[in-house]
Amino acid sequence: MAGYGEGLDPYTTLNTPTILRTRDIPWDIYMTARLISDRELQFLRRYDKKEPTYQTKLLKEGGKLYTNAFLTVLKNVTKDETLQYVLALIDDLLDVDPSHVALFLPPGAEEDQPYVEPYPILLRLLQRPDWFTQEKAARLLTAILASQLRPSAAAQTLDVSAASPAASALTAFVDWLCAQLRRPTHPLLGVPAAAHCLGVLLRDPGVRPLATRAGAAGLLGALVRVPAGGVIQNPQLLYEAMLGTWQLSFHKPAADLLANTATVGGLVDAVRVAQKEKLVRVALLALQNLLAHGPAGLEFAIVDKGLRRVLEVRATQSWDDGDVPELLAALGASLERGVCELSSFERYRRELLLGQLAWGPLHTADDFWAQNAERLAEGNGQLLRVLLKLVESSRDATTLAVGCNDVARFVAAYPHGRGIVTELRGKELVMRLMVHPDQAVQRQALACVQRILLSKDHASALVAGVGA
After folding, report:
1. Which intervals hold domain ATPase V1 complex subunit H C-terminal (predicted)?
2. For position 362, which CATH number holds?
3. What is the pLDDT of residues 19-38, one digit of tens each?
4. pLDDT confidence of residue 292
5. What's the number of domains the chain is made of?
6. pLDDT higher at 387 or 296
7. How far is CA 111 from CA 58, 64, 104, 165, in A?
8. What does pTM read for this prediction?
């Protein structure tokens, strides 16, 4: 968990090295109080305050005897300073060698030694009031559970649906992590810690349904945001959130929740402005999955967020990570396929509502207008009114030129188009543009006015001859 704050609590300045260096625990009093056995006392004395190389030697020779002693203290002792010290010992041994997590797993059939179940102990510690205890318990729980989960769908070691202690602990822990995302117990470190732990656990496909039911999709998706100024204030938290979003995007119910404009927009913004390559990479991976889950997110990414242009710009840059250029190209290809599959009228409607028109097949194809002109007149001409409003108020020359073209094509394709446009002051609005300083706007305005004034037979050649 070093990635989100090195276990440091700015309010209590607690961290593992400080605790191990400054505290001396009177282990004898716990044996006198019968909270630990004489044998456990000997293991604690033998391990505590020794050189790291000697501690590693002890763990290699009889590791589970020592971790059982640690867990017994965590189970029976309630004094904050002692709990924090033992958690610091465990934190330290995991930092020295992450494979030491195996010492907390159940013994194999060939091993004949006692075993202290860590799950109820650690879950209880999550409810302690101090952040150091919560964080270290969460770190150990994450490591233990992750070591039993499958790295891929082909090799499962923990059945998350089974009624085993580990499976029950996993469900409870995921619920706790999502609760931290909602209302963190530490104002600075609670959310980053929870996002990190979820990211580790979500590597396993079996955890994703649990996390989705606990609300992880919405909670992580809400963290995928880039401030308006484009300065990413907490790159590591953004990375953890996007990593979790990408992992959840393989689970369809979660992907359906994540494929919304806010999350997709945040991912596009990350691709646009992020300087760290790992941020760009994971944002591209998440977008590739989410944009395949429906037209809404795809339209938003293309039209609102300008994803095409973002990919073009970033493709011109040099990258140390060879995966990034490949991902940029792959997402660009997916984008083109997705655009072809979108309803053409939905794309046109989006352009209108965004107030920015650009030349393309939607504006020049006779088939499109023959099939869709009547849809502009639906709802008391709602979309036609939007088009005329653009003709009246837009300051973009291309939008004005394309808008005049569209009015002309509507008049040509819709049986009562001329009368409706005239009734809505469309002719008057277009005539004003005949003196616009941009020649393309003048040309399209003239053709449109001719279409409105002349009969279909006389005007068809004029409109057909006026292009972009």
Report:
1. 341-455
2. 1.25.40.150
3. 998 899 999 999 999 999 99
4. 84
5. 1
6. 387
7. 18, 11, 14, 20
8. 0.75
